[in-house]
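## Example record

The block below lists the input lines for one assembly entry, exactly as stored, with component labels intact.
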Amino acid sequence: MQLIECPWCGPREEVEFHYGGQAHVPYPDAPAEVSDEEWAHYVFFRDNTKGRFAERWCHSAGCRRWFNAIRDTATYRFESVHRLDAPQPHATELARSRRSTAP
Amino acid sequence: MAELLRTHPLQAWSTALERLPDTVGITAEPFVAMAVVRLGAAASEALDAALPTVPNTWAQHGTGRAVWLGPDEWLLSSTTETPEQLEARIRAAVVPLGGSVTDVSAQRIGLRLTGARVRDVLAKGCSIDLHPRVFGRGNSAQTLLGQAGVVLLALSDVGDDFLVLVRASFAGYLADWLLDAALEFTPTHDS
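Predicted structure tokens for the full assembly:
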């Protein structure tokens, strides 16, 4: 079982964590004005990246805090973890790392 | 109406726990008043005794303890106050600062683990490093012990004294689990 580095508690076993899906999905600025299709895209549509992917995780059996992580979906390795108040990783940085892991 | 007496959730386990040898001593702690404080980290100095701001630590707080549960969340306990007194005292201090306090005295009960081999017992169901070099007195951890979520406090610098705070509804399970884990350190007699 792999260890996941909680930004508060340090490395803990994977079973203590819960997955929260893709990170940094922007909430619509004017939710009442978007079309049904746009709303469906916001609610249901997520990237399906192979390689480094920004995700939300929750240390549910420990400090119960949400945090962001960059995880490689091909190798399952956690590249880095970020507290929610930390700036989000730059989009180009993610894209560049994505290319570098492409076959 | 009949008087409702508060019974300890581990009353039925008391004889089994008393039979354990000193190297893996397990005792159910008496009830204490506990309260959860939510307060912005910047304001944590406000209480007369400062709350621990380093993750996974605990500090003495009056007659009880203050345990770090999150960057803006602490568990305070008191052995001398009633739950109402503790809640009222803390509320007076933190509400003006925008914090909140909730009485959680009935949520968790304490199990005191003392003895030279309790670290081996805990290690059977807990993945964190409990060696006193990294988990000496003043450290705490919220983690899983067996399948139960616990708050683990190190009370000694030589790794032979721990306090396990477990939810009351999990206490029976955890007591069974601990008795099973302590079996190899418990001398058995054929007679």
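Chain A is about 20% helix and 30% strand. Chain A touches chain B through twelve residues (CB under 8 Å).
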